[in-house]
Amino acid sequence: MRNKLVIASKNRHKIEEIKDILRTFHFDILSMDEAGLTDLEVVEDRETFEENSMKKAEAVMRATGSIALADDSGLEVDILDNQPGVYSARFAGEGATDQKNNEKLLDMLQGIPADKRQGRFVSVISLAFPDGRKVSVRGECPGIIGFEPKGDHGFGYDPLFIVPAYDKTFAELGEGIKNKISHRARALAKLQDELREIVGGRDGEDRNNQ
């Protein structure tokens, strides 16, 4: 029997992205809604991505009794002292839309030249296991903040985040490329080694016989 893994998120875009990247992992992957946690709200009130990520993972693990995966991610801009950081989703206020957050970021970067608009997307992914084990990994993707939104794919700050190697925003590149090079993909790549060590021994034979 395969292990259940519940993604501690209600963000449809993020869930789809994580599921796509995790498709080769041998888990039955569920969203919070699919796991029956439609009413569970976890307040992200910690100071770091690591703390918020683990808080969410542990809350979902306790509520489901299953392995839980949580991602806390955001955008850090060097010249803004790493803002918006852990406040990325609510940069323009609680309940802010992606458009409002992007508009606020562009307003704060008015007059800042291209060579001073460096930043990075950060993703910290945590796993919480019912037996008490915990794992956290961090992935980063460096880039440049553009002067205007470009592209129709992705979500959040994707239309403003230019990947220098492609000279295109995440929103222009689309999911196929983004899911190979993104901060979340890099964090999940690190997580593969952790998962292989954790479930590859005791559970590996069961998985290979399925």
Description:
The chain has 210 residues and is of the alpha+beta class. It has one domain (4-208): Maf protein, CATH 3.90.950. The protein contains seven helices and eight strands. Strands 1, 2, 3, 4, 5, 6, 7 and 8 form an eight-stranded mixed β-sheet that branches. It is globular, with a radius of gyration of 18 Å. Mean pLDDT is 89; it is low at 201-210.
Oligomer: single chain
**Strand residue percentage:** 15-25%
CATH secondary-structure class: Alpha Beta
SSE ordering: EHEHEEHEEEEHHHH
Query: What is the SS-derived class?
Result: alpha+beta
CATH architecture, by name, is Alpha-Beta Complex
> How much helix is in the residues?
25-40%
- Please give the domain count: 1
Protein name: dITP/XTP pyrophosphatase
Family: Belongs to the HAM1 NTPase family.
Binding site for Mg(2+): 72
GO molecular function: dITP diphosphatase activity; ITP diphosphatase activity; metal ion binding; nucleotide binding; ribonucleoside triphosphate phosphatase activity; XTP diphosphatase activity
Topology:
Layout: E1 4-7, H1 12-21, E2 28-31, H2 49-64, E3 67-77, E4 83-84, H3 98-108, E5 118-128, E6 134-145, E7 161-163, E8 168-169, H4 170-173, H5 175-181, H6 183-199, H7 204-208
Helix pairs in contact: 5-6
Kindly summarize this structure in a few lines:
The chain is α+β, with helices and mostly antiparallel strands and 210 residues long.
